[in-house]
Amino acid sequence: MGYPVTRLRRLRQTKLIRDMVSETSLDVKDLICPIFVDESAEERKPIGSMPGIERLPLAGLEAEADEIAKLGIPAVILFGIPEHKDQTGDAAYAAGNVIEQAIKAIKRRNRDLLVIADVCLCEYTTHGHCGPIKNNTVDNDATLDIIARTAVNYARAGADVVAPSGMMDGMVHAIRSELDFYGLKDTIIMSYAAKYASASYGPFREAASSGCQGFDRSTYQMDPANSDEAIREVALDLEEGADIVMVKPALSYLDIIYRVKSEFRVPVAAYNVSGEYAMIKAAAANGWIDGEKVARETLLSMRRAGADMIITYFAKEIAPTLGK
Predict the structure, then answer these.
(1) Contact, 131 vs 140, CB < 8 A?
(2) Set 15, 85, 185, 248: catalytic member
């Protein structure tokens, strides 16, 4: 029955009523906070294209983890900037590498903080691609061995979750097999299952010193025009043993988040990427938008689409405002 008997505005009259009929929530427990760890840094280094975000020295990690935990944020995801790089990215699994040290430092003080270790080689290669190069592209199968050894290294150091992000075919199978072989069967795999060749990663390249050379990543990351392909990628990763699947970026791919959640009914992560963060920060700095409100609305849209958890650079900033 329509107007005048039905008046939907009745349910919007007060905040109390609006909260009671709210269909979607955004809670601090939904957030994952990224941390950039710079092995050569002796102090915090601001990232120009990401206001409020910094590279941290290893010595500053325990204090950072304390702050994140006190905010109620349940998880962090670590990205390493090593002092030395090579053509193959072998430094990613070398004993005592930057992420191994970072995991141990955080777990010493905050054992209840969930530590996710990004498993990719772009920060560790001199050319900035996600694996060794052969015939002007990333050598898929050679990369699998390196990332599997890297995942074992991180899991042994204490990572609760390993997150392969290179979009190599068979990456989840390679990692799951290696983890299980070494008795690390309880280590969770969060796969970057649908990672697009997006233009929104620019600020991350600065943050992680991972700009690529020679060719772009479109030969291994997904075409932004494709939706069905994402479903195939997710299905394969789940079959290979992924526990959580991720869609990256999030804001331009809400339809993909929705499809993945609807079709598979598994835990879904969304990555609110650096470009999405930087655009809101830039617009807010110019006085064009209310940055906090737009950030909240953006993250809520990801939850509404079906994301169970969100990796976001807004985590520390927005956590104190949630529930208010």
Answers:
(1) yes
(2) 248
**62 labelled ligand-binding:** no
Phi, psi of 97 (to 5 degrees): -65, 170
| 156 carries a ligand binding annotation | no
CATH of domain 26-321: 3.20.20.70
pLDDT for residue 324: 63
Distance CA 63, CA 85 (A): 27
Q: Is 293 annotated as catalytic?
A: no
Statement: residue 270 has pLDDT above 90: yes
CA dist., res. 224 & res. 197, Å (int): 7
Q: What sign does the dihedral 3-6-8-14 (CA atoms) show?
A: positive
> Which amino acid would we find at residue 265?
R
Active site residue 195: yes
Instruction: List % helix, strand, coil for the chain (3-state, nearest 5).
Output: 45, 20, 35
Rounded to whole angstroms, the Cα distance separating 87 from 126 reads 6
Instruction: Domain ranges for the chain, please list them.
Output: 26-321
**Nearest Cα to 118, choosing from 26, 190, 40, 13?**
190
Neighbours of 16 (CB within 10 A): 7
Does 229 belong to an annotated binding site? no
What residues contact residue 251 under an 8 Å CB cut-off, 6+ apart? 200, 272, 276, 298, 301, 302
What element of type H or E holds 234? helix 228-240
> Is 274 labelled as part of a ligand binding site?
yes
Q: Is 18 annotated as a binding residue?
A: no
- The whole-angstrom separation of Cα 104 and Cα 146 is 21
* Per-residue model confidence as pLDDT tens digits over 28-86: 999 999 999 999 889 999 999 999 999 999 998 999 999 999 999 999 999 999 888 88
Beta carbons of 255 and 232 less than 8 angstroms apart: no
| Residues in a beta bridge with 37 | 56, 80
- Which entry of 70, 107, 195, 324 is annotated as an active-site residue? 195
Task: Find out whether 33 is annotated in a ligand binding site.
Answer: no
How far is 219 from 80, CA to CA, in rounded Å?
24
Q: Which of 84, 39, 74, 73 is nearest to 57 (CA)?
A: 39
